[in-house]
Amino acid sequence: MSTTQGASDPSDRRDNQRFDYEVIVQVTRGDLSFQCTSEDVSTGGMRLRLEGAPPRVGERLRVEFKLPLLHDAIRAEAEVRWIDRSSAASCGVQFMTGLRAREVWAINRLHARR
Questions:
Q1: What are 71-74's contacts with CB under 8 Å, separation 24+?
Q2: Which of 46, 56, 82, 89 has the least C-beta neighbours within 10 A?
Q3: Beta bridge partners of 38
Q4: Considering the entire predicted model, what is its pTM?
């Protein structure tokens, strides 16, 4: 049984195509900074695989990650939209700051690199 908090079925509420893509993400949560791994990425947000205590739904995080087609890291403010503790703790975050055109382009090119 899933213990998803927030959206009843997160996959039904996506506006952007998500690409299964694992990347190391530097997360800043208040004064705490740690690394985790993404499970998927879209131009609207990402799913993060977490260790330890998950953040709360509605909590704001800062995320930073690199993509192969970009020289600079993507840095964005993100809000936790849902949490799933069914197997391994994970959460979905929505980017709250607009991504630059080249960042959107690089995310949309992820499917072509497979």
A1: 74/99, 74/103, 74/106
A2: 56
A3: 48
A4: 0.80
Higher confidence at residue 99 or residue 14? 99
End-to-end CA distance of the chain: 32
- The pLDDT of residue 19 is 79
Give the start-end residues of each E strand in 3-44: 5-6, 19-20, 24-29, 32-41
- Of 13, 18, 1, 31, the closest CA to residue 82 belongs to 13
Helices (H), 1-114: 101-108
What's the CA gap between 76 and 97, in Å, rounded? 6
Q: Report how far residue 106's alpha carbon sits from residue 101's, in angstroms, rounded to the nearest whole number.
A: 9
| Nearest residue to 36 (alpha-carbon basis) of 62, 4, 1 | 62
User: How far apart are alpha carbons 78 and 68 in whole angstroms?
Assistant: 21
76 touches 83 (CB < 8 A) = no
Here the tokens at position 86 are 């069914």
CA atoms of 27 and 4, how far apart (whole Å): 21
